[in-house]
Amino acid sequence: GQQVMQIPQYQHVQEGEDFTTYCNSSTTLSNIQWYKQRPGGHPVFLIQLVKSGEVKKQKRLTFQFGEAKKNSSLHITATQTTDVGTYFCAGPNSNTGKLIFGQGTTLQVKP
Amino acid sequence: NAGVTQTPKFRILKIGQSMTLQCAQDMNHNYMYWYRQDPGMGLKLIYYSVGAGITDKGEVPNGYNVSRSTTEDFPLRLELAAPSQTSVYFCASRWSGGNSGNTIYFGEGSWLTVV
Question: What integer is the mean pLDDT of A52-63?
Answer without folding.
Answer: 97
